[in-house]
Design brief:
single chain, 163 residues, alpha+beta, 6-stranded antiparallel β-sheet, globular
């Protein structure tokens, strides 16, 4: 009896370790029905220097809207190539694994930037992650996913400031 209890305890601990240490499941998405929305919120600076933006993309097109505290400054739409969309959806699939160890920052992060990504399949939201970058936050998984979409636009021109 004692041996059985020991074996059951070992099995339970093994299962717990396997589940607790396993990799996050990839996000399964249908590229043809998927859309990605990436939001960058700039730091708190005077309006003439503040540039936040949202990129909304699907398998065929991407639109970027640049604003300063809600006032739209620029908006552009461009085609998305099949190659670019494949890169984006591959990065989207790996988001759960690449973000699983990121901890939510403590309240009180004032003045930093933030990134958010939302993945939808049709009308269903499949994934969403918001990360504050206050002094070196771990935003790379989100910015890396957005990079192929940003490359579709002349970001330097779109984000130029008047100051």
């Amino acid at each position: 009896m004692r041996c059985r209890i020991t074996l059951i305890a070992i099995a339970a601990v093994s299962v717990g370790l396997t589940v607790g240490c396993s990799a996050a499941k990839p996000l399964e998405v249908d590229p043809a029905r998927t859309s990605v929305e990436y939001t960058f919120r700039d730091s708190s600076v005077p309006p003439e220097y503040h540039r936040s933006y949202v990129i909304k993309a699907s398998s065929t097109q991407a639109t970027i809207t640049v604003d300063s505290y809600g006032d739209v400054l620029r908006q552009e739409t461009t085609a998305v190539s099949a190659e670019t969309w494949t890169k984006v959806t591959d990065l989207v699939r790996s988001l759960p694994e690449r973000t699983k160890d990121i901890k939510t920052q403590k309240p009180g992060c004032a003045g930093g930037t933030a990134s958010k990504i939302v993945v939808r399949e049709g009308d269903d939201q499949r994934y969403s992650r918001h990360i504050e970058d206050c002094g070196g936050g771990p935003v790379a998984p989100l910015t890396d996913t957005a990079a192929p979409l940003e490359a579709l636009f002349d970001m330097r021109d779109l984000l130029k400031t008047s100051g």
